[in-house]
Design goal:
The protein is α+β, with helices and mostly antiparallel strands and 184 residues long. The protein has 5 helices and 11 strands. It has a single domain, classed as Small Protein B, Chain: A (Beta Barrel).
Length: 184
């Protein structure tokens, strides 16, 4: 029942079960720590735009917005980022109201400030302004520490023929994979 441990200073004897419980807690915490929890992904953005560069940034939220995000109540369909007064804002993202917040609830489509370093702000804002590119949110997720993050993409709009070309390419790749599976 008791096990002698020479590696612990001060305490030579500890119950064996106590040691096992601590080891299990550490291993389960590490496995949960490495995962990010996806809230919402903007799938249409990959179809409508050609993503040139991506950037992970934080987002400034109220308490009811965070609770609503944890429930997965977010729509990025018509969302985009704008540079106003030296900071980047997420516009058009619809975070549904949290039912239990009642009086202290948030406006669902209000603009939300994106948190990033000044150098990144200048770089992305300059590229978006110069070349006529768009800042589009690609996905929103909680990082392993539980902080809400937004993956912003610097995108160029696709023309209709570009969209058709990518669909044809994906279709041909799918056909090739299917043929290879049946060949085996």
């Amino acid at each position: 029942m008791w096990q002698r441990l020479s590696c612990l200073s001060g305490r030579d004897y500890l119950p064996y079960k106590c040691l096992m419980a601590k080891a299990e807690k550490k291993s389960s915490a590490k496995s949960a720590e490495k995962q990010e929890r996806l809230v919402s992904e903007n799938r249409k953005a990959r179809h409508r735009f050609e993503v040139l560069d991506t950037l992970e940034c934080g987002i400034q939220l109220t308490g009811s917005e965070v609770k609503s995000l944890r429930d997965g109540k977010l729509s990025l369909d018509e969302a985009y980022a704008r540079v106003k007064e030296g900071s980047v804002w997420l516009v058009g993202a619809d975070i549904a109201e949290y039912p239990q917040a009642t009086l202290w609830n948030h406006a669902p489509k209000r603009p939300r400030k994106l948190l990033m370093h000044r150098e990144e702000q200048r770089k992305f804002a300059a590229l978006a302004h110069e070349k006529g590119l768009t800042l589009v949110p690609l996905k929103v997720y909680f990082n392993p520490r539980g902080i809400a993050k937004v993956l912003i993409g610097l995108c160029r709009g696709k023309k209709l023929h570009d969209k058709r070309e990518t669909l044809k390419k994906a279709d041909s790749e799918r056909e090739m994979a299917r043929a290879m599976r049946h060949k085996r």
